[in-house]
Amino acid sequence: MRVTTAFNRVLAVPGASVADVAFTDDGVVVGLRRRTRLHRCPCGHKVAGRYDRSRRRWRHLDLAIARVWLEAELARVWCPRCQRVRTEDVPWARPGARHSRDFEDIVAWLAQRMDKTSLSKLMRCSWEAVHRIVTHVVTERLSASRLEDLYRIGVDEISYKRGHRYLSVVTDHDTGRVVWVGTGRSVETLQNFYAELGPARCDQLEAVTMDGAAAYIGATRAKAPHATICFDAFHVIKWANEALDGVFAASDITALKTQMKTTTRTNATNSAWRRARYAIRAGKERLSAEHRKIITLIRSERADLHQAWLLKEELRDLFQIIDPDHAEAYLRDWTSRAARSGIRPFINLATKIAKHFDGIVAAVELGLSNSRSEGINTKIRVIQRRGYGHPNPASLTAMIYLCCSGMNIPIPTQT
Questions:
Q1: Res. 252 pLDDT band, cuts 50 70 90
Q2: pLDDT digits (tens, 9 = 90+) for 303-312
Q3: Which end of the chain, N or C, is surrounded by fewer C-beta atoms within 10 Å?
């Protein structure tokens, strides 16, 4: 069997046949001959003539320990549709790429599952090459259809760099997939998403969950006024815990610490403080017998702190055990009692909740929260740690789309 025939069968390069094979110090260089005389512009238009031509190499999948390079003539053509000179498209590589499609698909598939440093070592390419390949694959495979049939979405931000650098991430509640990522967390950032979505698809939105950020509220009300804004339960309880921390910090718990030393048999004052703080912040269903004793001590020693703890637990009940049909009346009663409690942090909290009243009630009635978005944020953190950081938001954005948008990368080893 001839060498060219063997390589034709082994490589199966689409749209070309092997013309010659050279074994060099850089690896195996496989010369390709195109099967068609027509040249295809990246826009899809085919032309017969060419502007000029040159030889180009593409890195292909390794053959055992040898690197494999595909080499062929590449023409520049005058495209009447684009009205300019462009480099032709070839079937075995993406436009502008220096790697074959098979090589890029393998790298992208592995990038979904491992860190870039190990990946670059395995594939014998640079870290920067991995980034460029991920960008190429995402650009080609990120479908515009991901923005179709959106009815319930979640919006949240995540920091990608120190210095308050954020990405805004939009998640589809029905599929749990990321549908859009933008740099920043301003009104303009989310408006860019709604502009890409378009007025017709904005009108289809039924609910948007968020954390109460003024920028997201303003953008949603301006661009998707028909959508119901729902404020995430996690952040509402976070507000309550922050108010509870304010009461705890202002309370004189010296006598309480003294009793806790005897009750819990510990001499560490800091440990007693941490135990007391955990007892009031944790959900009552998660309290151990020891923590329940601390709550009993707080009730007898610090009535204001115990009242604040009760208000926090009653607010948690809104999202856990209260019938959604009674949510509005329950929250209105809670807000009234918190405002009359005489506890300054909870008076401020009642004012804040009254400002976001409709969104909190809507979240309970619709059974929606930002849990999907928070889950996506956890995955993004894993991506960041796995990549040992990313040099710019575009690099992290490409990885988010690759790993969290439901993108399926076919690999040449699959039949």
A1: low
A2: 888 899 999 9
A3: C
Q: What is the pLDDT of residues 203-213, one digit of tens each?
A: 999 999 998 88
Candidates 247, 374, 361, 260; CA nearest to 312 is 247
Do 168 and 159 touch, CB atoms closer than 8 A?
Answer: no
Structure tokens, 151? 């009815």
Domain ranges of the chain: 1-98, 146-232+369-404, 234-365
- pLDDT, mean of residues 94-120: 92
116 vs 127: CA distance, rounded Å: 6
CB 73 within 8 A of CB 53: yes
- CB 122: neighbour CB atoms within 10 A? 12
Q: Whole-prediction pTM value? A: 0.85
232 by DSSP, 3-state: which? coil
- Positive/negative CA dihedral, 255, 261, 267, 271: negative
Burial environment of residue 80 by CB neighbours within 10 A (0 to 12, 13 to 18, 19 or more): exposed
Closest CA to 99 of 140, 132, 148: 132
The rounded distance, in Å, linking the Cα atoms of 294 and 298 is 6
Looking at CATH, the fold of the domain delimited by 146-232+369-404 is given as: Nucleotidyltransferase; domain 5 (3.30.420)
Give the rounded distance of the alpha carbon of 333 from its chain centre.
37
Cβ atoms within 10 Å, residue 132: 19
Q: Mean per-residue pLDDT for 390-410?
A: 90
Token pair of 57 as six digits: 């190499």
| DSSP-derived 3-state class of residue 158 | strand
